[in-house]
Write a structure and sequence with these properties.
Layout: E1 13-15, E2 21-23, E3 32-36, H1 43-54, H2 56-61, E4 65-70, H3 74-84, E5 90-92, H4 97-101, E6 105-110, E7 113-118, E8 121-125, E9 131-135, H5 143-153
Length: 162
């Protein structure tokens, strides 16, 4: 059954770059930006992550949690995070269980060929744990600002932060 706006977000627990478990339920009461990306240290994924990094202080002041998810192992996440000074957790899903549940796995075109892979997708999850917004076919450049604007539109950003 496809994920739709308004339904409860599928629960998960995944390790970050340090091996610490992050479960969606830990963030109840705060809006969560859950973004799925294909691979650390690739141009598009770096652009997207750096965009969230550059706006991170704003997200943090507004109480918004940012979580990145890819199939890369924690060690690779650790190097990526250090190289680009990423201040938010990068979650490892090498078996692609959460990636699949969140419909971020499927056919994609690369260099003229179609193959299965991680689809760039972002979900805004409201403080009660429901899907508030879905971004499919994400373009990395400017995506963090697009997410910020959506959080503001949804009323999750306090007026003084907007």
């Amino acid at each position: 059954m496809p994920i739709t706006v308004g339904q409860p977000a599928p629960t998960f627990c995944l390790p970050d770059e340090q091996g610490q478990q992050h479960c969606l339920e830990h963030y109840r009461g705060r809006p969560v930006v859950l973004y799925f990306y294909p691979k650390d240290n690739t141009p598009g994924c770096t652009t997207e992550a750096v965009g969230f990094r550059d706006l991170y202080d704003r997200f943090q002041r507004a109480g918004v949690v940012i979580l990145g998810v890819s199939p890369d192992p924690p060690e690779r996440h650790q190097r990526f995070k250090q190289k680009y000074a990423l201040p938010f957790p990068l979650l490892a899903d090498p078996e692609r269980r959460v990636i699949s549940v969140y419909e971020a796995w499927g056919p994609k075109r690369s260099f003229g060929k179609v193959r299965e892979g991680v689809l760039r997708k972002t979900y805004i999850i409201d403080p009660e744990g429901r899907i508030a917004r879905i971004f499919s076919k994400v373009r990395p450049k400017g995506h963090a600002q697009q997410v910020w604007d959506a959080l503001r539109e949804l009323g999750f950003i306090p007026e003084e932060e907007a």
